[in-house]
Amino acid sequence: MNLFHWVVCVLEWHRSDRSWRFSVPVSASLLLAAPTLPMLPFWLSLNVDSIATNLVSNQSDPVSNSLVSNSTDELEPIDSEVFNPLPPTGGFLPPSQEVQPSTPTASCSPDPNLATTQLAISSPSGILHTSNWGGVMDKVLPSLTVHFSARPFPEIHQQARLAQVPVMMYHDIIAEKEVFFDVTPEEFAADLQLIQENGLTPISLDQLVEHLSAGVPLPEKPILLTFDDGYAGHYTYVYPLLKQYGYPAAFSIYPYKVGREHGRPGLNWEQVREMAADPLVTIASHSVNHPADLRELPDDQLRLEIFESKEILERELGIPIHHFVYPEGKYDERVAAFVQEAGYHSALTMNDAEDKFAGESESLLAIDRIGQSGLETVITEAYGGAPLINPFTTADFNFSAPVRLSQQTIDEVPLIFASGGKPVTIHANSRYQVAEIMEGTEAVAAVDGGFFSLESLDSNVMVGPVFSQSTNEFVPGNPGEIPLITGRPLVLISPNEVRFVPFDPAKHNTLEGIQAEMPEVTDAFVGAAWLVREGLPQPAEAFGNLFDFDAARDRAYWGIDQAGQPIVGVSGDYVDSITLGQVLAKAGMRDVIMVDSGASASLAYQGESMMSYEPRPVPHVVALLPPVEVATSDCAIVSQKQADE
To answer: What is the pTM of this model?
Structure first.
């Protein structure tokens, strides 16, 4: 047997108990290289980044948990018709056409843990190399991530779900328009100028697939340009402009059109070869004959269209063809299975009824695109994703990214959430709208927080203990109520991390008790239930007898995404807790808990409510401050509503 076919296990970091375990199968070649691991920093400084292949992804087992408590609404039921007079379709503002990341205006003292370590590395030749280990890792981490983090094909990586990458679809570029989707050379040149003026970075199709499969972050504002059908205008007008700007693009070619007068003039093989030889150009297969609907073809003809088109292009161009583009975007599971069998790395589709970013796609075999007419809309929303968490450290959190608002729909469930920045809580002196509690603070976004007593509607009394850096006061929970919330997630926040631990009334109802869990704790409160835990959506049994967890209601949530960033958000429609957890896991969330929901569900961004109705006033919010790198003060979150006036 070939030794390299042996399978061994490598260490994987588990956030739940902060330990390393043997869990990920990998080729034995990595084991054979173990004696040379002390030389890894030197190799990395030489950009030797291909370490292992044929890795298989593995997920930790679900963490079972049960909640034996009831929500505040169960302690004292509320008439939903009185407090939340919304139709079943929900009541949220429509998605913004211009969602921009926040402009940092606040700050904190620099985190000493962010200091860079200098390492002295000796080479075999005796030459001393001083290397910025952090800098080296920043350069090679994406390559390592491709090997160690790629999802099983054709799944999309959870972290890629956090990005917003527009894949633009063009057809013919022609001097005079004949149909609505035609684009003139002048219009296309204006599009490229718009892309440049707005600071977007065009990427290649290979870059996008790497990002979608392994979560590798892209440039801050990425965009992919694609051109279908192999029209002559692609060579005459598009290719020269791409070279002028230095922008990559993908062209889908179907061989029957090449060198023939088939409809409009098309490219000839000489032109396709010239373009294919340019690193800016990616050639994709578009079938052999461009049938109107691949789904209607019998298996033998479907195989010819998908397999033979790849073979012809590879033979004529002398390059591998890794990508397929469905004619007219039409496919189903059978068609996609043939594409996968043929060995393609991805397939692009289209949907005239709905525009989606690449990360919202069903899979790598159905990457969504946006018609060129939508460029001006999506150009303000392009986002390449948060930086990767370095797997060679134990850092699980990123509080240095700008705060930005995202709106996306997954499995027909709309989500509105803000991510990034530094998490804090604000315990107000009474009950107010979330946006009112944010007034006078540096908070960019906030969601209603912990549960509160309904007995005194003009007080700030909470259910369970609460500790907020806004007041620096620990308020214990009512001894008669805290047994009811046993096992619910206790939120603990420090300057560098967030933890969610099951609430224990005997341990956690004193400041000393929560400090025993987290010595540097600055904020604490008790939430409703876990929606996502260690990347896994929670099943029905995890909610115990939590009131109305399986009912469709407005839901509010907060937690940490796969990039280690804090997130605060609401559902954009009525949804049950189980479905919401499933959707949030698909959206790239790592650990998320539900906070006070129903009539209290409320999200505010840059001082404006994201709700189309007025929610019930609340005394407590989870807020996101601007990142620490842009500090201008000491994270002041003093508000008119935070202390007795």
So the answer is: 0.70
